[in-house]
Design goal:
Blueprint lengths: L1 E4 L1 E4 L2 E9 L14 H29 L2 H14 L2 H14 L3 H18 L3 H22 L13 E5 L4 H4 L7 E6 L7 H8 L4 E3 L13 E5 L4 E4 L3 H21 L16 E6 L5 H6 L5 E5 L1 H5 L7 H15 L3 E5 L26 H7 L1 H14 L4 E6 L5 H20 L7 E7 L2 H5 L1 H5 L4 E4 L1 H8 L18 H16 L4 E3 L9 H8 L3 E4 L4 H9 L3 H12 L5 H13 L8
Parallel strand pairs: 3-4, 4-5, 5-6, 9-10, 9-16, 10-11, 11-12, 12-13, 13-14, 14-15, 15-16
Antiparallel strand pairs: 1-8, 2-6, 3-7, 7-8
Helix pairs in contact: 1-2, 1-5, 2-5, 3-4, 4-5, 11-13, 12-13, 13-14, 19-21
Bound molecules: phosphoenolpyruvate and magnesium ion (MG).
The site of phosphoenolpyruvate (PEP) has 11 residues, from strand 10 and helix 17.
Protein backbone atom coordinates (compact mmCIF):
# COMPACT_ATOMS: atom_id res chain seq x y z
CA UNK A 1 0.00 0.00 0.00
CA UNK A 2 1.31 3.47 -0.86
CA UNK A 3 -0.42 6.86 -0.66
CA UNK A 4 0.41 9.70 -3.05
CA UNK A 5 -0.54 13.35 -2.59
CA UNK A 6 -1.29 15.37 -5.69
CA UNK A 7 -3.55 18.12 -6.96
CA UNK A 8 -7.28 17.56 -6.99
CA UNK A 9 -8.35 18.03 -10.62
CA UNK A 10 -11.83 16.53 -10.57
CA UNK A 11 -13.81 15.64 -7.46
CA UNK A 12 -15.25 12.29 -6.50
CA UNK A 13 -13.98 8.86 -5.57
CA UNK A 14 -13.17 5.87 -7.74
CA UNK A 15 -11.86 2.41 -6.95
CA UNK A 16 -10.65 0.12 -9.70
CA UNK A 17 -7.88 -1.65 -11.58
CA UNK A 18 -5.07 0.44 -13.07
CA UNK A 19 -4.58 0.82 -16.79
CA UNK A 20 -1.13 2.23 -17.52
CA UNK A 21 -1.07 4.77 -20.29
CA UNK A 22 2.61 4.56 -21.00
CA UNK A 23 5.13 4.15 -23.72
CA UNK A 24 5.79 0.43 -24.21
CA UNK A 25 9.39 -0.80 -24.30
CA UNK A 26 9.95 -1.53 -27.98
CA UNK A 27 13.72 -1.72 -27.85
CA UNK A 28 15.43 -4.66 -29.58
CA UNK A 29 18.90 -5.93 -30.40
CA UNK A 30 19.73 -5.63 -34.13
CA UNK A 31 20.32 -9.09 -35.55
CA UNK A 32 20.93 -10.82 -38.88
CA UNK A 33 18.70 -13.64 -40.05
CA UNK A 34 19.27 -16.65 -42.27
CA UNK A 35 15.78 -17.76 -43.18
CA UNK A 36 14.51 -14.84 -45.28
CA UNK A 37 11.21 -16.49 -46.10
CA UNK A 38 10.18 -17.11 -42.54
CA UNK A 39 11.28 -13.59 -41.52
CA UNK A 40 9.03 -12.11 -44.23
CA UNK A 41 6.11 -14.22 -43.12
CA UNK A 42 6.75 -13.10 -39.51
CA UNK A 43 6.47 -9.51 -40.78
CA UNK A 44 3.30 -10.29 -42.78
CA UNK A 45 1.71 -11.84 -39.74
CA UNK A 46 2.50 -8.79 -37.58
CA UNK A 47 1.03 -6.53 -40.27
CA UNK A 48 -2.15 -8.64 -40.48
CA UNK A 49 -2.58 -8.59 -36.70
CA UNK A 50 -2.07 -4.81 -36.67
CA UNK A 51 -4.62 -4.36 -39.41
CA UNK A 52 -7.23 -6.46 -37.62
CA UNK A 53 -6.59 -4.48 -34.45
CA UNK A 54 -6.96 -1.17 -36.26
CA UNK A 55 -10.22 -2.19 -37.93
CA UNK A 56 -11.51 -3.08 -34.50
CA UNK A 57 -10.34 0.22 -32.95
CA UNK A 58 -11.75 2.19 -35.87
CA UNK A 59 -15.15 0.55 -35.51
CA UNK A 60 -15.22 0.96 -31.75
CA UNK A 61 -14.16 4.61 -31.91
CA UNK A 62 -16.76 5.28 -34.57
CA UNK A 63 -19.49 3.83 -32.34
CA UNK A 64 -18.35 5.33 -29.04
CA UNK A 65 -16.90 8.70 -30.03
CA UNK A 66 -17.89 9.52 -33.61
CA UNK A 67 -16.37 9.90 -37.04
CA UNK A 68 -13.90 12.69 -36.26
CA UNK A 69 -12.03 10.66 -33.68
CA UNK A 70 -12.23 7.51 -35.80
CA UNK A 71 -10.69 9.14 -38.87
CA UNK A 72 -7.13 8.88 -37.58
CA UNK A 73 -7.38 5.08 -37.54
CA UNK A 74 -8.42 5.08 -41.19
CA UNK A 75 -5.19 6.93 -41.94
CA UNK A 76 -3.28 4.20 -40.06
CA UNK A 77 -5.01 1.43 -41.99
CA UNK A 78 -4.07 3.21 -45.22
CA UNK A 79 -0.38 3.11 -44.24
CA UNK A 80 -0.65 -0.60 -43.44
CA UNK A 81 -2.04 -1.15 -46.90
CA UNK A 82 0.74 0.75 -48.68
CA UNK A 83 2.57 -1.79 -50.92
CA UNK A 84 5.53 0.52 -51.56
CA UNK A 85 6.33 0.87 -47.88
CA UNK A 86 6.32 -2.88 -47.26
CA UNK A 87 8.20 -3.79 -50.40
CA UNK A 88 11.03 -1.56 -49.12
CA UNK A 89 10.99 -3.35 -45.74
CA UNK A 90 11.01 -6.73 -47.43
CA UNK A 91 13.83 -5.77 -49.82
CA UNK A 92 15.95 -4.82 -46.84
CA UNK A 93 15.27 -8.19 -45.21
CA UNK A 94 16.16 -9.98 -48.48
CA UNK A 95 19.19 -7.89 -49.45
CA UNK A 96 20.79 -7.29 -46.04
CA UNK A 97 19.54 -10.29 -44.10
CA UNK A 98 18.27 -7.83 -41.51
CA UNK A 99 15.64 -8.94 -39.01
CA UNK A 100 12.09 -7.68 -39.59
CA UNK A 101 12.50 -5.29 -36.62
CA UNK A 102 15.66 -3.71 -38.06
CA UNK A 103 14.21 -3.36 -41.56
CA UNK A 104 10.88 -1.99 -40.33
CA UNK A 105 12.58 0.59 -38.14
CA UNK A 106 15.00 1.78 -40.78
CA UNK A 107 12.34 2.17 -43.50
CA UNK A 108 9.90 3.88 -41.10
CA UNK A 109 12.61 6.26 -39.87
CA UNK A 110 13.33 7.21 -43.49
CA UNK A 111 9.65 8.03 -44.08
CA UNK A 112 9.37 9.91 -40.79
CA UNK A 113 12.43 12.06 -41.59
CA UNK A 114 11.07 12.89 -45.04
CA UNK A 115 7.61 13.81 -43.74
CA UNK A 116 9.04 15.87 -40.90
CA UNK A 117 11.17 17.90 -43.26
CA UNK A 118 8.17 18.92 -45.37
CA UNK A 119 6.63 22.35 -44.92
CA UNK A 120 3.07 21.16 -45.34
CA UNK A 121 1.41 20.51 -41.97
CA UNK A 122 -0.79 17.76 -43.27
CA UNK A 123 2.28 15.89 -44.49
CA UNK A 124 4.10 16.50 -41.22
CA UNK A 125 1.19 14.89 -39.40
CA UNK A 126 1.80 11.79 -41.58
CA UNK A 127 5.14 11.41 -39.75
CA UNK A 128 3.24 10.83 -36.51
CA UNK A 129 0.93 8.37 -38.22
CA UNK A 130 3.86 6.35 -39.60
CA UNK A 131 5.48 6.34 -36.14
CA UNK A 132 2.22 5.09 -34.57
CA UNK A 133 1.78 2.34 -37.15
CA UNK A 134 5.42 1.31 -36.82
CA UNK A 135 4.94 0.98 -33.05
CA UNK A 136 1.92 -1.23 -33.51
CA UNK A 137 3.69 -3.63 -35.91
CA UNK A 138 6.80 -3.61 -33.73
CA UNK A 139 4.69 -4.53 -30.71
CA UNK A 140 3.51 -7.65 -32.53
CA UNK A 141 7.00 -8.54 -33.76
CA UNK A 142 8.40 -8.28 -30.24
CA UNK A 143 5.39 -9.75 -28.46
CA UNK A 144 4.95 -6.54 -26.43
CA UNK A 145 1.36 -5.61 -25.68
CA UNK A 146 0.39 -2.02 -26.54
CA UNK A 147 -2.18 -0.62 -24.18
CA UNK A 148 -4.53 1.22 -26.47
CA UNK A 149 -6.87 3.61 -24.64
CA UNK A 150 -9.35 3.25 -27.49
CA UNK A 151 -9.51 -0.51 -26.86
CA UNK A 152 -10.44 -0.32 -23.19
CA UNK A 153 -13.67 -2.23 -22.86
CA UNK A 154 -14.07 -2.49 -19.12
CA UNK A 155 -13.96 0.06 -16.35
CA UNK A 156 -10.44 1.06 -15.34
CA UNK A 157 -8.41 3.74 -13.60
CA UNK A 158 -6.06 5.43 -16.07
CA UNK A 159 -2.57 6.01 -14.71
CA UNK A 160 -0.41 8.25 -16.89
CA UNK A 161 2.76 10.27 -16.75
CA UNK A 162 1.41 13.25 -18.63
CA UNK A 163 -2.18 13.16 -19.75
CA UNK A 164 -2.57 15.29 -22.88
CA UNK A 165 -5.90 16.73 -24.06
CA UNK A 166 -5.50 14.60 -27.21
CA UNK A 167 -5.26 11.41 -25.04
CA UNK A 168 -8.28 12.42 -23.04
CA UNK A 169 -10.21 13.04 -26.26
CA UNK A 170 -9.77 9.32 -27.17
CA UNK A 171 -11.25 7.93 -23.96
CA UNK A 172 -14.65 6.35 -23.88
CA UNK A 173 -15.90 8.06 -20.71
CA UNK A 174 -18.01 5.16 -19.47
CA UNK A 175 -14.91 2.97 -19.14
CA UNK A 176 -12.75 5.53 -17.34
CA UNK A 177 -13.63 5.48 -13.63
CA UNK A 178 -10.75 7.64 -12.51
CA UNK A 179 -7.44 9.19 -13.60
CA UNK A 180 -4.08 9.65 -11.89
CA UNK A 181 -1.20 11.51 -13.57
CA UNK A 182 2.36 12.42 -12.60
CA UNK A 183 2.22 15.86 -14.26
CA UNK A 184 -0.39 18.58 -14.71
CA UNK A 185 -2.16 21.35 -12.81
CA UNK A 186 -5.73 22.06 -11.75
CA UNK A 187 -6.59 24.18 -14.78
CA UNK A 188 -4.69 22.29 -17.48
CA UNK A 189 -7.07 21.35 -20.26
CA UNK A 190 -7.01 17.63 -19.60
CA UNK A 191 -8.00 18.36 -15.98
CA UNK A 192 -10.87 20.49 -17.27
CA UNK A 193 -11.96 17.65 -19.56
CA UNK A 194 -12.02 15.27 -16.58
CA UNK A 195 -14.28 17.65 -14.72
CA UNK A 196 -16.56 17.99 -17.74
CA UNK A 197 -16.81 14.20 -17.91
CA UNK A 198 -17.09 14.00 -14.10
CA UNK A 199 -14.20 11.55 -13.82
CA UNK A 200 -12.47 11.70 -10.40
CA UNK A 201 -8.92 12.86 -11.20
CA UNK A 202 -5.72 13.64 -9.33
CA UNK A 203 -2.75 15.18 -11.18
CA UNK A 204 0.72 16.38 -10.19
CA UNK A 205 1.47 13.09 -8.38
CA UNK A 206 5.09 13.16 -9.65
CA UNK A 207 5.94 9.43 -9.59
CA UNK A 208 2.81 7.33 -9.37
CA UNK A 209 3.23 5.65 -12.77
CA UNK A 210 6.54 4.16 -11.64
CA UNK A 211 4.90 2.03 -8.93
CA UNK A 212 1.70 0.93 -10.63
CA UNK A 213 1.34 -2.25 -12.68
CA UNK A 214 -1.54 -2.92 -15.02
CA UNK A 215 -4.37 -4.34 -12.92
CA UNK A 216 -3.12 -3.02 -9.55
CA UNK A 217 -6.01 -1.83 -7.42
CA UNK A 218 -6.06 1.96 -7.05
CA UNK A 219 -8.25 4.38 -5.12
CA UNK A 220 -8.61 7.89 -6.54
CA UNK A 221 -9.77 10.47 -4.04
CA UNK A 222 -10.35 13.41 -6.35
CA UNK A 223 -11.77 15.49 -3.55
CA UNK A 224 -8.70 15.27 -1.31
CA UNK A 225 -6.22 15.06 -4.20
CA UNK A 226 -4.97 11.70 -3.00
CA UNK A 227 -4.25 8.35 -4.64
CA UNK A 228 -3.85 5.05 -2.79
CA UNK A 229 -2.06 2.30 -4.70
CA UNK A 230 -2.78 -1.27 -3.60
CA UNK A 231 -5.01 -0.27 -0.65
CA UNK A 232 -5.74 -2.58 2.29
CA UNK A 233 -9.23 -3.93 2.90
CA UNK A 234 -10.03 -1.31 5.57
CA UNK A 235 -9.28 1.48 3.12
CA UNK A 236 -11.38 -0.13 0.39
CA UNK A 237 -14.29 -0.47 2.86
CA UNK A 238 -13.88 3.13 4.01
CA UNK A 239 -13.91 4.46 0.46
CA UNK A 240 -16.79 2.27 -0.61
CA UNK A 241 -18.80 3.76 2.27
CA UNK A 242 -17.82 7.25 1.05
CA UNK A 243 -18.99 6.42 -2.48
CA UNK A 244 -22.36 5.36 -1.01
CA UNK A 245 -22.64 8.62 1.00
CA UNK A 246 -21.78 10.62 -2.14
CA UNK A 247 -24.51 8.83 -4.07
CA UNK A 248 -27.08 9.69 -1.40
CA UNK A 249 -25.93 13.34 -1.40
CA UNK A 250 -26.11 13.49 -5.21
CA UNK A 251 -29.64 12.13 -5.23
CA UNK A 252 -30.68 14.78 -2.65
CA UNK A 253 -29.19 17.46 -4.89
CA UNK A 254 -31.26 16.28 -7.81
CA UNK A 255 -34.26 17.89 -6.10
CA UNK A 256 -32.78 21.26 -7.12
CA UNK A 257 -32.72 20.60 -10.88
CA UNK A 258 -35.67 22.82 -11.68
CA UNK A 259 -35.28 25.23 -8.77
CA UNK A 260 -34.24 28.86 -9.20
CA UNK A 261 -30.74 29.97 -8.32
CA UNK A 262 -31.31 32.75 -5.80
CA UNK A 263 -29.73 33.68 -2.48
CA UNK A 264 -31.74 33.60 0.76
CA UNK A 265 -32.60 37.27 0.28
CA UNK A 266 -33.73 36.71 -3.32
CA UNK A 267 -30.72 37.82 -5.37
CA UNK A 268 -30.78 35.79 -8.55
CA UNK A 269 -27.90 34.37 -10.56
CA UNK A 270 -27.65 32.19 -13.64
CA UNK A 271 -25.85 28.86 -13.39
CA UNK A 272 -24.64 27.69 -16.78
CA UNK A 273 -22.50 24.81 -18.05
CA UNK A 274 -19.16 24.69 -19.83
CA UNK A 275 -19.12 22.23 -22.72
CA UNK A 276 -16.60 21.02 -25.29
CA UNK A 277 -18.94 19.33 -27.75
CA UNK A 278 -22.62 19.04 -28.63
CA UNK A 279 -22.69 15.68 -26.89
CA UNK A 280 -22.03 17.42 -23.54
CA UNK A 281 -25.38 19.24 -23.72
CA UNK A 282 -27.41 16.31 -22.36
CA UNK A 283 -25.26 16.25 -19.22
CA UNK A 284 -25.71 20.02 -18.80
CA UNK A 285 -29.50 19.73 -19.00
CA UNK A 286 -29.59 16.74 -16.64
CA UNK A 287 -27.69 18.82 -14.11
CA UNK A 288 -30.08 21.76 -14.25
CA UNK A 289 -28.00 24.17 -16.36
CA UNK A 290 -29.83 27.42 -17.10
CA UNK A 291 -27.71 27.98 -20.18
CA UNK A 292 -24.35 27.22 -21.76
CA UNK A 293 -21.82 29.81 -20.57
CA UNK A 294 -18.86 28.50 -22.54
CA UNK A 295 -18.64 26.17 -25.52
CA UNK A 296 -14.93 25.51 -26.09
CA UNK A 297 -15.18 25.07 -29.86
CA UNK A 298 -11.49 24.32 -30.39
CA UNK A 299 -12.17 20.71 -29.41
CA UNK A 300 -14.18 20.41 -32.63
CA UNK A 301 -11.01 21.35 -34.46
CA UNK A 302 -8.80 19.09 -32.34
CA UNK A 303 -10.91 16.00 -32.89
CA UNK A 304 -10.65 16.29 -36.64
CA UNK A 305 -7.88 15.55 -39.13
CA UNK A 306 -8.53 18.77 -41.01
CA UNK A 307 -10.22 22.11 -40.44
CA UNK A 308 -13.94 21.52 -39.90
CA UNK A 309 -16.02 22.99 -42.73
CA UNK A 310 -18.62 25.75 -42.33
CA UNK A 311 -21.44 23.25 -42.81
CA UNK A 312 -20.00 20.77 -40.29
CA UNK A 313 -19.67 23.52 -37.72
CA UNK A 314 -23.09 24.93 -38.47
CA UNK A 315 -24.68 21.52 -37.73
CA UNK A 316 -22.91 21.31 -34.36
CA UNK A 317 -23.79 24.86 -33.24
CA UNK A 318 -27.37 24.50 -34.42
CA UNK A 319 -27.65 21.21 -32.55
CA UNK A 320 -26.47 22.84 -29.30
CA UNK A 321 -28.87 25.78 -29.69
CA UNK A 322 -31.81 23.53 -30.50
CA UNK A 323 -31.11 21.18 -27.63
CA UNK A 324 -30.94 24.16 -25.25
CA UNK A 325 -34.40 25.12 -26.47
CA UNK A 326 -34.26 28.91 -26.18
CA UNK A 327 -31.96 29.03 -23.14
CA UNK A 328 -28.90 31.28 -23.61
CA UNK A 329 -25.85 29.72 -25.26
CA UNK A 330 -22.44 31.41 -25.33
CA UNK A 331 -20.07 30.02 -27.93
CA UNK A 332 -16.42 30.98 -27.89
CA UNK A 333 -14.53 31.25 -31.14
CA UNK A 334 -11.65 28.77 -31.39
CA UNK A 335 -8.99 29.18 -28.71
CA UNK A 336 -6.21 27.36 -30.52
CA UNK A 337 -2.63 27.52 -29.27
CA UNK A 338 -1.26 27.35 -25.72
CA UNK A 339 -1.64 23.67 -24.82
CA UNK A 340 -4.21 23.12 -27.59
CA UNK A 341 -2.50 22.59 -30.91
CA UNK A 342 -3.83 21.33 -34.21
CA UNK A 343 -1.52 18.85 -35.89
CA UNK A 344 -2.71 19.91 -39.35
CA UNK A 345 -2.30 23.64 -38.81
CA UNK A 346 1.07 25.16 -39.46
CA UNK A 347 2.22 26.79 -36.22
CA UNK A 348 5.57 28.40 -35.56
CA UNK A 349 7.61 26.83 -32.76
CA UNK A 350 7.10 29.11 -29.77
CA UNK A 351 9.20 29.53 -26.64
CA UNK A 352 6.16 30.65 -24.62
CA UNK A 353 3.04 29.20 -26.22
CA UNK A 354 0.70 30.56 -23.51
CA UNK A 355 2.05 34.06 -24.16
CA UNK A 356 2.24 33.55 -27.86
CA UNK A 357 0.32 33.09 -31.03
CA UNK A 358 -3.02 31.79 -29.76
CA UNK A 359 -6.76 32.40 -29.62
CA UNK A 360 -7.94 35.73 -31.10
CA UNK A 361 -4.38 36.57 -32.17
CA UNK A 362 -4.35 33.55 -34.43
CA UNK A 363 -7.96 34.14 -35.56
CA UNK A 364 -7.23 37.69 -36.68
CA UNK A 365 -4.10 36.55 -38.46
CA UNK A 366 -5.65 33.51 -40.18
CA UNK A 367 -8.92 35.24 -40.78
CA UNK A 368 -10.22 32.73 -43.33
CA UNK A 369 -10.51 30.14 -40.51
CA UNK A 370 -12.16 32.76 -38.30
CA UNK A 371 -14.60 33.82 -41.03
CA UNK A 372 -15.65 30.21 -41.64
CA UNK A 373 -16.42 29.78 -37.96
CA UNK A 374 -18.27 33.10 -37.70
CA UNK A 375 -20.41 32.27 -40.73
CA UNK A 376 -21.35 28.92 -39.20
CA UNK A 377 -22.23 30.67 -35.95
CA UNK A 378 -24.26 33.43 -37.59
CA UNK A 379 -26.24 30.85 -39.58
CA UNK A 380 -26.87 28.87 -36.37
CA UNK A 381 -28.08 32.01 -34.57
CA UNK A 382 -31.48 31.54 -36.21
CA UNK A 383 -32.04 28.51 -33.96
CA UNK A 384 -31.76 29.93 -30.44
CA UNK A 385 -30.38 32.57 -28.08
CA UNK A 386 -26.76 32.92 -29.17
CA UNK A 387 -23.89 34.96 -27.75
CA UNK A 388 -20.45 34.83 -29.34
CA UNK A 389 -17.31 35.63 -27.40
CA UNK A 390 -13.70 36.08 -28.37
CA UNK A 391 -10.91 34.51 -26.28
CA UNK A 392 -7.70 36.18 -25.03
CA UNK A 393 -8.58 39.73 -25.94
CA UNK A 394 -5.77 42.09 -24.87
CA UNK A 395 -6.76 45.37 -26.54
CA UNK A 396 -9.99 47.08 -27.59
CA UNK A 397 -8.64 47.18 -31.13
CA UNK A 398 -8.59 43.36 -31.25
CA UNK A 399 -12.27 43.38 -30.32
CA UNK A 400 -13.00 46.06 -32.94
CA UNK A 401 -11.28 44.01 -35.65
CA UNK A 402 -13.11 40.83 -34.64
CA UNK A 403 -16.43 42.69 -34.60
CA UNK A 404 -15.77 44.17 -38.05
CA UNK A 405 -15.13 40.71 -39.49
CA UNK A 406 -18.28 39.45 -37.77
CA UNK A 407 -20.34 42.31 -39.22
CA UNK A 408 -18.96 41.79 -42.72
CA UNK A 409 -19.82 38.09 -42.68
CA UNK A 410 -23.24 38.76 -41.19
CA UNK A 411 -24.03 41.28 -43.91
CA UNK A 412 -22.87 38.86 -46.62
CA UNK A 413 -25.09 36.12 -45.23
CA UNK A 414 -28.10 38.41 -45.00
CA UNK A 415 -27.46 39.59 -48.58
CA UNK A 416 -27.36 35.94 -49.65
CA UNK A 417 -30.82 35.56 -48.11
CA UNK A 418 -29.74 33.44 -45.14
CA UNK A 419 -31.95 33.47 -42.05
CA UNK A 420 -30.06 34.87 -39.04
CA UNK A 421 -31.00 35.67 -35.42
CA UNK A 422 -29.98 38.31 -32.90
CA UNK A 423 -26.46 37.74 -31.55
CA UNK A 424 -24.73 39.31 -28.55
CA UNK A 425 -20.98 39.88 -28.86
CA UNK A 426 -18.66 39.72 -25.88
CA UNK A 427 -15.12 39.08 -24.78
CA UNK A 428 -13.40 36.74 -22.41
CA UNK A 429 -11.47 38.72 -19.86
CA UNK A 430 -8.38 36.63 -19.27
CA UNK A 431 -5.54 39.07 -19.88
CA UNK A 432 -4.69 41.61 -17.15
CA UNK A 433 -4.72 44.52 -19.66
CA UNK A 434 -8.38 43.80 -20.47
CA UNK A 435 -9.24 43.37 -16.78
CA UNK A 436 -7.68 46.75 -15.96
CA UNK A 437 -9.40 48.49 -18.85
CA UNK A 438 -12.74 46.75 -18.30
CA UNK A 439 -14.48 50.16 -18.23
CA UNK A 440 -13.33 50.86 -21.80
CA UNK A 441 -14.40 47.43 -23.01
CA UNK A 442 -17.77 47.85 -21.28
CA UNK A 443 -18.59 50.63 -23.78
CA UNK A 444 -18.15 48.25 -26.67
CA UNK A 445 -19.36 44.79 -25.71
CA UNK A 446 -22.71 43.20 -24.83
CA UNK A 447 -21.25 41.12 -21.98
CA UNK A 448 -17.97 39.98 -20.47
CA UNK A 449 -16.97 36.53 -19.29
CA UNK A 450 -14.05 36.22 -16.91
CA UNK A 451 -11.68 33.41 -17.83
CA UNK A 452 -9.99 32.95 -14.48
CA UNK A 453 -7.88 29.98 -15.57
CA UNK A 454 -5.85 32.23 -17.81
CA UNK A 455 -6.38 35.45 -15.88
CA UNK A 456 -4.87 33.91 -12.74
CA UNK A 457 -1.92 32.42 -14.63
CA UNK A 458 -1.14 35.83 -16.13
CA UNK A 459 -1.69 37.83 -12.94
CA UNK A 460 0.46 35.45 -10.90
CA UNK A 461 2.91 34.75 -13.79
CA UNK A 462 2.44 31.02 -13.15
CA UNK A 463 1.96 28.44 -15.94
CA UNK A 464 -1.41 26.80 -15.30
CA UNK A 465 -0.18 23.34 -16.32
CA UNK A 466 2.98 23.22 -14.20
CA UNK A 467 2.47 21.23 -10.99
CA UNK A 468 5.68 22.62 -9.44
CA UNK A 469 4.12 26.05 -9.11
CA UNK A 470 0.53 25.04 -8.58
CA UNK A 471 0.55 26.88 -5.22
CA UNK A 472 0.40 30.08 -7.29
CA UNK A 473 -3.01 29.22 -8.66
CA UNK A 474 -4.64 31.55 -6.10
CA UNK A 475 -8.21 32.49 -6.96
CA UNK A 476 -8.71 34.19 -3.57
CA UNK A 477 -5.56 36.29 -3.76
CA UNK A 478 -6.68 39.91 -3.24
CA UNK A 479 -4.81 40.87 -6.44
CA UNK A 480 -7.10 38.56 -8.41
CA UNK A 481 -10.21 39.58 -6.46
CA UNK A 482 -9.56 43.28 -7.07
CA UNK A 483 -9.35 42.70 -10.81
CA UNK A 484 -12.55 40.66 -10.75
CA UNK A 485 -14.29 43.42 -8.81
CA UNK A 486 -13.11 45.96 -11.37
CA UNK A 487 -14.52 43.87 -14.21
CA UNK A 488 -17.88 43.25 -12.52
CA UNK A 489 -18.27 46.91 -11.47
CA UNK A 490 -17.41 48.11 -14.99
CA UNK A 491 -20.06 45.80 -16.46
CA UNK A 492 -22.69 46.98 -13.99
CA UNK A 493 -21.86 50.65 -14.60
CA UNK A 494 -22.86 50.06 -18.22
CA UNK A 495 -25.74 47.72 -17.42
CA UNK A 496 -24.26 44.65 -19.08
CA UNK A 497 -23.97 41.18 -17.49
CA UNK A 498 -20.76 40.04 -15.83
CA UNK A 499 -20.17 36.33 -16.31
CA UNK A 500 -17.42 33.93 -15.33
CA UNK A 501 -16.52 30.69 -17.08
CA UNK A 502 -13.14 29.90 -15.54
CA UNK A 503 -12.93 27.08 -12.99
CA UNK A 504 -13.25 29.61 -10.17
CA UNK A 505 -16.96 30.01 -10.98
CA UNK A 506 -17.70 26.51 -9.65
CA UNK A 507 -15.40 26.67 -6.64
CA UNK A 508 -17.37 26.54 -3.37
CA UNK A 509 -14.92 28.88 -1.61
CA UNK A 510 -15.03 31.44 -4.43
CA UNK A 511 -18.80 31.39 -4.92
CA UNK A 512 -19.66 33.33 -1.71
CA UNK A 513 -17.10 35.99 -2.72
CA UNK A 514 -18.48 36.18 -6.26
CA UNK A 515 -22.04 36.47 -4.97
CA UNK A 516 -20.81 39.36 -2.81
CA UNK A 517 -19.10 40.96 -5.81
CA UNK A 518 -22.36 40.72 -7.77
CA UNK A 519 -21.43 38.24 -10.51
CA UNK A 520 -24.47 37.58 -12.73
CA UNK A 521 -23.63 34.28 -14.42
CA UNK A 522 -21.52 31.39 -13.14
CA UNK A 523 -20.54 28.88 -15.82
CA UNK A 524 -18.93 25.63 -14.73
CA UNK A 525 -18.62 21.93 -15.44
CA UNK A 526 -22.08 20.39 -15.34
CA UNK A 527 -21.28 18.22 -12.33
CA UNK A 528 -20.75 21.28 -10.11
CA UNK A 529 -24.04 23.04 -10.90
CA UNK A 530 -26.39 21.51 -8.35
CA UNK A 531 -23.88 21.76 -5.52
CA UNK A 532 -23.34 25.43 -6.42
CA UNK A 533 -27.09 26.07 -6.57
CA UNK A 534 -27.47 24.51 -3.15
CA UNK A 535 -24.68 26.73 -1.83
CA UNK A 536 -26.02 29.98 -3.32
CA UNK A 537 -29.49 29.25 -1.94
CA UNK A 538 -27.96 29.07 1.54
CA UNK A 539 -26.24 32.47 1.33
CA UNK A 540 -27.42 35.91 2.36
CA UNK A 541 -26.07 38.22 -0.33
CA UNK A 542 -25.81 41.17 2.10
CA UNK A 543 -23.45 39.16 4.30
CA UNK A 544 -21.51 38.15 1.18
CA UNK A 545 -21.13 41.80 0.12
CA UNK A 546 -19.47 42.56 3.47
CA UNK A 547 -17.28 39.48 3.07
CA UNK A 548 -16.27 40.46 -0.48
CA UNK A 549 -15.54 44.05 0.58
CA UNK A 550 -13.28 42.73 3.31
CA UNK A 551 -11.48 40.46 0.86
CA UNK A 552 -10.69 43.05 -1.80
CA UNK A 553 -9.49 45.63 0.70
CA UNK A 554 -7.60 42.99 2.62
CA UNK A 555 -3.83 43.13 3.04
CA UNK A 556 -3.48 39.41 3.59
CA UNK A 557 -2.94 36.23 1.65
CA UNK A 558 -5.15 33.99 -0.45
CA UNK A 559 -5.14 31.50 2.42
CA UNK A 560 -6.41 34.13 4.88
CA UNK A 561 -9.23 35.11 2.53
CA UNK A 562 -10.13 31.43 2.22
CA UNK A 563 -10.24 31.09 6.02
CA UNK A 564 -12.41 34.19 6.23
CA UNK A 565 -14.90 32.64 3.78
CA UNK A 566 -14.96 29.33 5.64
CA UNK A 567 -15.42 31.09 8.95
CA UNK A 568 -18.19 33.34 7.62
CA UNK A 569 -20.06 30.34 6.26
CA UNK A 570 -19.70 28.05 9.21
CA UNK A 571 -18.65 30.39 12.09
CA UNK A 572 -21.04 31.30 14.86
CA UNK A 573 -24.06 30.55 12.81
CA UNK A 574 -23.31 27.33 10.96
CA UNK A 575 -25.33 26.92 7.79
CA UNK A 576 -26.30 23.75 6.05
CA UNK A 577 -26.79 23.95 2.30
CA UNK A 578 -30.31 23.47 1.02
C1 LIG B 1 -10.21 30.41 -18.82
O1 LIG B 1 -9.09 30.75 -19.22
O2 LIG B 1 -10.61 30.62 -17.66
C2 LIG B 1 -11.14 29.73 -19.73
C3 LIG B 1 -12.38 29.48 -19.36
O3 LIG B 1 -10.66 29.31 -20.94
P1 LIG B 1 -9.71 28.03 -21.13
O4 LIG B 1 -9.69 27.28 -19.82
O5 LIG B 1 -10.28 27.22 -22.21
O6 LIG B 1 -8.39 28.65 -21.46
MG1 LIG C 1 -8.66 30.72 -21.32
Amino acid sequence: MKTFKGISASEGIAIGAAFRLDEPDLSFKPRKIEDVKSEISRLDEAVQLSKAELFNIHQKTLEDLGKYQAEVFNAHIAILSDPEFFSKVKSQIRNNNDSAEVALKSVSDGYIDTFESLKDDYMRQRAEDVADVMKRIMGHLLGVELHDPALINKQVIIVAHDLKPSDAAQFVPKYVKGIAADLGGKTSHSAIMSRTLQIPTVVGLEDVLAVVENGTQVIIDGTKGQVIVDPNQDQVDEYQAKIKRNEVHQSELRGLINKKTASLDGREAVLAANISSDSDVAEAIENGAEGIGLFRTEFLYMQSLKLPSEDDQFEVYKDVLQKMDGKPVTIRTADIGGDKSLPYLKMPKQENPFLGYRAIRLSLDKDEIFRTQLRALIRASAYGDLSIMFPMISTTSEFDQAKLIYRTERKKLIDEGTKVGQVKLGIMVEVPSAALLADQFANKVDFMSIGTNDLIQYVMAADRGNEKISYLYQPYNPAVLRLIKNIIDSCHDKGIPACMCGEMAGDPVAIPLLVGLGLNEFSMNAGAILESRSLIRSLDSREMITLADRSVSFYGSSEEVKNDVTHTLSGDNPKTYK
